[in-house]
Amino acid sequence: MTRWWLGWLVLVVLACGGCKDRGTEHALVLSRGDVLEAGDTYPQALPPQGAPWQPVTLPDNWDGRRPGYGGYVWYRLRFESRTAPGMRQALYLPNAGMNAEVVFNGARLGSHGRMQMPPTRHFYTPLLFELPQALFADGQAGNELLVLLAGHPGYRSGLGVAYVGPYDALDGARRWRGAWQNTGTLVTSVFNMALGAYVLLLWWGERRRQTHQALGWFGAALMVWGLRNLNLVVTEPPVPDLLWALITVAGAATFTGLFSLFAMRLAEQEDPGYRAPRWMAPAVGIYIVAALTFFLSSPSYRLANSGFVPLSLIGVGLALWSVWRLARLAWRRRTRTLGAVAVAAAIYMVLLFRDFTIAANSTTLGEYFLRQYAAVPLFAAIALLLARRYFDALARARELSASLQSQVDAQRDELQRRFDQLHEIGRERALAQERARLTRDLHDSLGMHLVSALRQVRSLAPGSADALAGTLQDCLDDLRVVIDSLDVDERDPLVVLGTLRFRLAPRFEAMGVRLDWSIGTPDLERSVLQPGTTLELLRIVQEALTNALKHSGANVVRLVVDFDADALVVLVIDNGRGWPADVRAGRGLHNMQARAERIGGRWSMRSTAEGCTVRLEIPHSARAAVASVATAGPNP
Q1: pLDDT at residue 489 above 60?
Q2: What's the per-residue H, E or C state across 527-549?
Q3: How far is residue 592's CA from residue 433's CA, in Å, rounded to a whole number?
Q4: Global pTM exceeds 0.85
Q5: Is 58 exposed, middle or buried (0-12, 13-18, 19+ CB in 10 A)?
Q6: 3-state class percentages of the chain: helix first, strand second, coil last, to nearest 5
Q7: How far is CA 253 from the centre of its chain?
Q8: φ, ψ at 145 (rounded to 5°)
Q9: Distance between CA atoms of 230 and 63, rounded to whole angstroms?
Q10: CA–CA gap between residue 601 and residue 53 (Å, rounded)
Q11: Are 60 and 77 spatial neighbours (Cβ–Cβ below 8 Å)?
């Protein structure tokens, strides 16, 4: 990675340094001429005969040769005709600040942009003017070029070395320089501002976490740096020219301060043993405010230029401290990303000194500024560092999520195991309750019948054989009812009641009674019975049918099973003589009512002279409650 940064530096230096005049090899170099100051008003006419021209050697930097001068200056450049017939010729001005207008052999060729104050800002944009063939002097006569320059005081205005030669070759030179000075700078500005906006969005999402303060300072520094570099490519600023120039100068100081704050916070985050001095951040803030106040309040280029050097020296000091802090952090942590940041910062610092010496030199013009390119690998390395930290945090979050998921799975398995245990306990409890119920029922019903049968056998009275057979039949019916209620595979009331009817039907037919069967539309979702409910239902229906068979004197008994919205309804209806009003209810009726109450049902009997109706309602909610009690385990 470090070698990549060094390769970037070599590429920038070779492209912008050694090859800056590419395409001018066969052109005529114009470096000597005459100069004439024209004042601060745009000259409508050409210089008069006998004007006080002074000899000049290009480049002519106004800051060195005419400090504080702002306005217009004429340059006169003479050369002999060296053009071939049919070959397009051009004048190439690599550096003409702020803007230039050309007059060739007395004919105005115009300018690129505005010449009136404030002129179009072409101080960092190469200019090319085609020289018409018809204007060239014949034979060995000399040709005269007049270049009118419009500039500001204290802003590196002036004219660099000029070239005259083949149009295509000089246009290639202009494109080459323009690509590095203008297009490349614009690309880096867009890259910096886009990266800065992205980093600021990340910081905004994590602004409440103190460990992400470096993101905010870095994003702000990126945005300021991208806006500052637009000074090199914007020719028509959206604000007054002086304000635009001062904003860009103040932006350079602001960027240096913001970047030093970023380096300080990054060092504190990455190196737990480091804490910046308490005065550091306030001092940087004071520097930023002072630079902004001084430059933005300056009424002229001259005053703003007077504070450029001292404020720049402070900025260089902050930049040196930032690079040293990053290099020290890289040495302590020994990671590749921090090493890349340190190397890129060192490269940036070298080119910063180079650009600073160019800006402070009042005798040269036309050099490339390289700091905007050196910042690209620096910012990319820092972005890579922050991205690596983000991905490391994301990986840790995934590992933590996987660990939590494994713990959740383990807890879920444990809960499932405990649930299975509770379910088994509940099932065993339900079986125990069912066994107790079965024992009680066998004792109360089957035991009573067997005792009666034993007494009948002992008495050996006439006709006791038929009574004994009936008693034994009742025992057998009771046993079958109990067995049917214990069938775990069958909980449909229609099926269990249908089985009961099938088994009792022969007794009814033997006694000349018809047993009818009527069912309603079943509710498949809510018609499932629990074992306890099944047995109680069968007992109640069995008792009602037995009473109708033995005591009603009916010849038709009807069993009706219906389903309404709230309950399962069972009716036993006979056409007998009814229940006498003066006869007290026996044990069987009380048993039916008690059984109904145990399962949460409602039992009733209506008796008239035309017959008797026994009604049983088992609400759906009561069956659900019985189900929950039957399956619930003991409390832990």
Answers
A1: no
A2: CCCCHHHHHHHHHHHHHHHHHHH
A3: 20
A4: no
A5: buried
A6: 55, 15, 25
A7: 34
A8: -110, 125
A9: 23
A10: 125
A11: no
587-595 own/partner pairs: CB under 8 Å, 24+ apart: 588/543, 588/546, 588/547, 589/547, 591/539, 591/543, 592/539, 592/540, 592/543, 592/544, 592/616, 595/536, 595/539, 595/540
- Distance from CA of residue 174 to its chain's centroid? 45
Residue 545 to residue 613: CA distance in whole angstroms: 11
Concatenate the DSSP letters of all residues of 372-412 into one string.
Answer: HHHHHHHHHHHHHHHHHHHHHHHHHHHHHHHHHHHHHHHHH
Residues in the chain: 636
Q: Which amino acid is at 586?
A: G
How do residues 455-470 score in pLDDT, each as one tens digit?
666 565 555 566 666 6
Q: For 308-328, what is each residue's pLDDT tens digit?
A: 778 888 888 888 888 888 888
Q: Which of 184-193, 213-222, 580-589 has the lowest mean pLDDT?
A: 580-589
76 and 34 Cβ atoms separated by less than 8 Å: yes
Instruction: Provide CB contacts within 8 A for 254, sequence distance 6+.
Output: 224, 288, 291, 292
Is 574:554 a contact under the CB 8 Å cutoff? yes
What is the Cβ-side half-sphere exposure of residue 306, based on CA atoms within 13 angstroms? 7
Residues 623, 630 contacting (CB under 8 angstroms): no
Average pLDDT, the chain: 81
Could you tell me which residues come within 8 angstroms of residue 78 by beta carbon, excluding any fewer than 6 positions away?
33, 142, 143, 144, 145
Both tokens of 151, joined, read 């500039």
Residue that the structure tokens 């998921």 belong to: 405
Q: For residue 18, what pLDDT is reported?
A: 45
Q: Which of 117-126, 328-337, 464-473 has the weakest average pLDDT?
A: 464-473
Angle 193-194-196 from CA coordinates, rounded to 5°: 60
* Spatial separation of the C-alpha atoms in residues 450 and 456, rounded to whole Å: 10
Residue 144: phi and psi, rounded to 5, are -120, 130
